[in-house]
Amino acid sequence: MVRSKAAFVWFNGRIVPWEDAKVHVLTHAFNYGTAAFEGIRAYPHQEEMLIFRLDDHLKRLLRSCSIYGFDIPVSKEELASACVKVIGANDFHEPVYIRPLVYVSGTGVGISFEGYPIEVAVVAVPFSSYFGVSRGVDAMVSSWRKTAASSLPAEAKITGQYTNSVLAKMEALRNGFNEAILLDPEGLVCEGSAENIFLVRDGKLVTPPVNAGILEGITRDTVIKIANEEGIPIQERDVTRSELYTCDEAFFAGTAVEVTPIRSIDRKVIGDGAEGPITKRISHLYQSAVIGKLPGHDGWVTPVYSSRVWSAAQSSEQDQ
User: Fold this and answer.
1) Are 98 and 124 in contact (CB under 8 A)?
2) pLDDT average, residue stretch 232-246
């Protein structure tokens, strides 16, 4: 799980002590959920820290801002620089979770944020296992349905929208499960509370399509690309609830959870209850990808300590 703090935060263009990154209790984003965010991972490899698919995550962040009309005051390049700098400032040499946050910062009572400033923060914290288990997770189909795409845009990663996931996750935990699986309003399989889902049936990977109201996950895209390159057939199609109980393998895929096998769903064991061969193969290749060792995809990782951004930041500090 995530440790609660680090030494420094990138806050509105400056590296500041953790304790100084504060907002007012009447901040619009705090009261109405008007903030776009991303979850990005960085991994240690030899003497370096490597951020995985940074550019793709930031592109999605900008799309989220565009959907909600947040006039973000920094460029994608400045956001990338901030992610590099916050890791370097904290001298991380361990797995890290990065949280860029673009939020409506004005104060007041009222839904509209017309004329309110938009601010940006980037936080990075040490991060180990999301679920805290080593042999797969037990999931349940939540009684809460995924919010319809006609009500809230699934393509946007917005803080307020995650209350739907909170309800499902807490229901799962209170019933003795590790994770929830949400169905869409029509009863088709959608995704986990904070990750996409894949099934394996007769040697084929199956996953709900983007138009099923899921978040278009970066890890999901990585898994699909790996599967295609490995010659593993993949189907993006509607998935029924009954298929959850009859599949040969199942796994969650997301930045925080990486590739995590699902051991059981609604107390029905998947396969023989162990990590299946295709899940294991995908997971192994994914772990190679995040440290730049997947052939043809070294461009997926952004180095921190050898980057021009961090070198320039160090030089600036020395000059001062």
Assistant:
1) yes
2) 97
Residues 6+ apart with CB under 8 A from 227: 205, 233, 234, 282
In the residue annotation, 157 being an active-site residue is answered as: yes
Which listed residue (146, 157, 225, 268) is catalytic? 157
Locus of tokens 């889902």? 197
* Domains defined for the chain, CATH in brackets: 8-128+300-308 (3.30.470.10), 137-289 (3.20.10.10)
- Region 86-106: mean pLDDT is 96
Residue 161 CB burial class (10 angstroms; 0-12, 13-18, ≥19): middle
Query: In sequence order, what DSSP letters do the residues of 33-54 get, joined into one string?
Result: --EEE--EEEEEETTEEEEETH
DSSP for residue 314: H
pLDDT digits (tens, 9 = 90+) for 113-130: 999 999 999 999 999 878
Predicted structure pTM score = 0.94
Q: Whose CA is closest to 154, among 101, 219, 197, 214?
A: 214
